[in-house]
């Protein structure tokens, strides 16, 4: 079967896309979702087990706390609060609360990716978002999943929010009042928090809200800018500590009037790595601090508690129960039991039962063989014991037996919750290996086929022989097809977890198997052809075959090496260095090849010259066409000027010889134009130098020169009117840039009058420098910063 | 070629390796706080001086390219000056190549230049000693079939392995292991040294292995 090269290339592309799609479908796990998409229709909560008519607890239990304040500090690592290095020194009030006050402290472990938006979603819905959410982190749409905020709004709670505008995008129309600050300016860590704190005094005095959410970005910004070991971290922690003290004292004074406890939650969405960033899965990035403070929690003197390790997704279930709301349907977390320790046993068991019912329903919908899950069995057993306890309780039996049984039921429930939560979390992180394997096999087969049939497959008018009807290959095809089908059947009938590829219909799966077998036959036939040609070449050395030159070998090995280096974890954020290095090596190899062909003419073949011709960027192919073949009749002569370059005019020859060096210099300039990566990103680069306000003159000269060069290069082929039009257009570009202030006109000096805003910024910078030395100056800068014009967007929703 | 030639080659190379090892250990007796990683520039200078000295001595004593013509003093002086100029030119050339590969242009100039000097002593100095300041001879030796003796063969091998060692030594620079030897130019100079030593070890072995197939035009 003969294929044109265009058809061949198109087929390869289509098969690659299919293979990659299959791989991605197996790589990104299917999200755990509950099938009940009813946001407004409240499902009746599960009644107490085996109570029947005698129990009047059929509705949701009443809320435990009247008001809830959530203070979310972005980037709050656990050792910022609990450790000796930062916590004890810079957060004295929090440390007092953790060690002696009415609080419960936890180390909440976040899951990947440790970036703000997925973490907010995890905390509010209790579910585990996947990697796809990172792509949407820059432009987050509204959250449609069941979550605590939506439930609170549906129950009529009034929610006020101040902080990162991600929340406003995730929960539009949920907040009674909000003020979103943008998180994009990473270098600002004072204003972004002042914008939150300035509302605090007013809001705490008012009583017309039920939930207050504050999201502080300053700590995260400091981490990005200068890392966790900078002294700015200590100042920021002190500021956060004073805010916490303010909120807590206000809540306490309010409780004296109403006698119903409030809840103050201090948490972080993710930690901070040693370099100050976040996003990966190191311990420092995963572990965040979580402190629940309320006068409902008892603390006896001398009761020393260490922060327990829990999952970040447990917060959603706890908040829902604390506010008397149904637990969000997709939550995989379990209730943080210490928060309900002070309640009567019947209420505790009711909360645990509600949570377990929700988790088991989620398990039922997402795991086909849920009855075999140990968590489900434990839940059923706990439910039965709970029923027994209820019967005993309703018989007014207050004996020791009741007490012991209650403790046993509680233990069972906690165990069941833990197991259910674990198995649900594990579902999300499972890779569908079979689909991934099938996709990989397809992609690799196409790659090998391309490699084997290169270069004749991709030249202009090539035609490929694909021997599909020969008896050997059709036999191979059917054999491989049978084997693959048998494999497919075995894997699909024995797989316990759901697999996407097995879920496809038999026809589709059969089609994919046939494709894989056909590709394998094509690969084998190409291999056979290569070997046959190789033997032919060895017998007949004058056979003009496309041989692999050293340059080809270098390119192939370099590409392989580049691909392999992408898998190395030590190369993270520095992958561009491999690229720069390999491009430089390639240019030098090209240069060597070029000079070798120009200064030594011995035994030269047509191919290297044509390779050199294709490799040069600035050579004019028309000149080379005439003299492609070097003079074969003069072997072993070290002549300085072979015939190929003789016919070139002088300056063109020099252009050709100098072109690799020009390319190398341009690449070096481009490298220093913009520093990227992590290790050397802070080093000064040309881009910064040019765009800083001191060097406007240089930037203007460079811009004018570039526009002029563009004109000179393009004007050769234009008529007079288009030349004039283009000149006017380029002039207009320069004028526009000058008008918005990026470049200067030659009659403008560097404007010496700094605008008022910049003056204020300069002053605040100086104050910041002073503040790093002594504590008093911190207060001065804060009050100074409050007088500066803050950012807009102070929205008041309905 | 005879076996004695190969033996002489082997002993010469062993002496070169020995000089490099000496350059690592001897200065710690005379200087305080000498270590390869901390006083790297000092070590580079010392190593270059040792290797140059050994190369000069060996090629003057052993005289593998016995050419007994025109030994007038002025000719010798001119030759010597030309050698120095070629050496300096090769240092600058290597410096430019390193800057093009990404070494900083304005900072760390001394480090880059000393690294270029070191690489030149590993590659250019043996060429100068063996072949003299004669570009045509160099081009001939490094072209495909231009070697005329085992010394030139070994020259090819040591030069190429020095270059490969330098190239490979650049790999650890962007890794995030935060070791002291990842700083520029330490990993590359160590790579160049290892490459040179490896070339010195491999070339007599390779020549001995292939002594039957190697035929030279002058033999």
From TrEMBL, chain A:
GO terms (BP aspect): GPI anchor biosynthetic process
Gene3D superfamilies: Alkaline Phosphatase, subunit A
Domain of life: Eukaryota
Gene Ontology MF terms: CP2 mannose-ethanolamine phosphotransferase activity
A UniProt-annotated Pfam family: Phosphodiest
Transmembrane segments: 7-28, 433-454, 466-491, 511-532, 697-714, 726-747
Keyword check for Endoplasmic reticulum: yes
GO cellular component: endoplasmic reticulum membrane
Keywords of this entry: Endoplasmic reticulum, GPI-anchor biosynthesis, Membrane, Transferase, Transmembrane, Transmembrane helix
Membrane topology: Multi-pass membrane protein
Region (Disordered): 35-57
Main subcellular localisation: endoplasmic reticulum
Signal peptide: none
Listed pathway(s): Glycolipid biosynthesis; glycosylphosphatidylinositol-anchor biosynthesis
Protein name, entry field: GPI ethanolamine phosphate transferase 2 isoform X5
TrEMBL record, chain B:
Segments crossing the lipid bilayer: 9-29, 41-62, 83-106, 112-132, 153-171, 183-209
Membrane topology note: Multi-pass membrane protein
The entry's keywords: Endoplasmic reticulum, GPI-anchor biosynthesis, Membrane, Transmembrane, Transmembrane helix
GO cellular component: endoplasmic reticulum membrane
Pathway annotation: Glycolipid biosynthesis; glycosylphosphatidylinositol-anchor biosynthesis
Pfam families assigned to the protein according to its UniProt record, in alphabetical order: PIG-F
Localization, UniProt: Endoplasmic reticulum membrane
Gene Ontology biological process terms in this record: GPI anchor biosynthetic process
Classification via InterPro entries: GPI_biosynthesis_protein_Pig-F (IPR009580)
Official protein name in the record: Phosphatidylinositol-glycan biosynthesis class F protein isoform X1
Protein source organism: Mustela putorius furo
Gene name in the database record: PIGF
